[in-house]
């Protein structure tokens, strides 16, 4: 127990730059420590993930809460080499996608509920933005629950939203029907190495009490940049040709440069073409 308390406090101090009170009698300290210490895994051993174990993880993930019990999230397992290779070919900058023994795709399924309405001979006057939003939220919750289950079993995972840079090609490869869209992929495997813990914005920035309060955003971001640079300095600067070489290159400079380039401007068009109405 003492060890779990220490692990939680150490991890959250690195994460948020703040020491948290942790009651040693709190149940579930082991799980809290795992959450506090978690990190993305992009390097896997050659060992396979047995199909039964994967099914178990998927069942645990799909036990996640679901909006109105509508159950609008699906998981697609991609093991077949040819299909995997075609997806990996789309994303050469992310070799972990090819290396992971398993690749999953978390899907927002907005077609099943209208299908159920049709099966039961009822109208479906809800074909608007909420259908897409609810299905996407469900898929994101299932993705997060899969991460938690897999990490509890000792697996390492890396969500892959970059598949949406090639949403049409991925949808064709996976034969996604109308009103089904990929929310994110996920590499799954046995960790070959432990990645570094990623510091987060301070709770002064992301945790609000009673009402939304931005506070000293610029000051908090600056402090976060400096705190983060102590343990996770950026090795490379983005787009030096356009923005020059920064003397101090922190998280905010990196994110500002990343989003100075259009990202997935065609995604709305893809979602509409998949049959969702976004009004
Ligand atoms: C929805 C989602 C999509 C992500 N997409 C990618 C991706 O396409 N490629 C990648 O290498 N990492 C991806 N990640 C991993 C994030 O980069 C990682 O979670 C973040 O850098 C923070 O690191 P941490 O998870 O170790 O705290 C994604 C994470 C989430 C939650």
Tell me about this structure:
It is a single chain. The chain is α+β, with helices and mostly antiparallel strands. Helices cover 45% and strands 10% of the residues. The protein has a four-stranded antiparallel beta sheet. The chain is globular and about 55 Å long. The model has no long low-confidence stretch (mean pLDDT 97). The chain binds flavin mononucleotide.
Task: Please render the helix and strand layout as text.
Elements: H1 2-16, H2 29-37, H3 51-61, E1 73-78, H4 81-90, H5 96-99, E2 102-109, H6 112-119, H7 129-152, E3 156-160, H8 167-173, E4 180-189, H9 203-206, H10 217-231, H11 240-243, H12 251-258, H13 267-273
Antiparallel strand pairs: 1-2, 2-4, 3-4
What are the salient characteristics of this protein?
four-stranded antiparallel β-sheet; 279 residues; alpha+beta; 45% helix; binds flavin mononucleotide; 4 strands
Gyration radius, rounded? 21 Å
- The outline comes out as globular
Bound molecules: flavin mononucleotide
Strand order, sheet with most strands: 1-2-4-3
Strand content: 5-15%
In the predicted model, the low-confidence regions spanning at least 5 consecutive residues are none
The beta-strand count equals 4
Largest sheet: 4 strands, antiparallel
H-E order: HHHEHHEHHEHEHHHHH
* Count of runs of 4 or more consecutive helical residues: 13
Q: How would you classify the helix and strand content by structural class?
A: alpha+beta
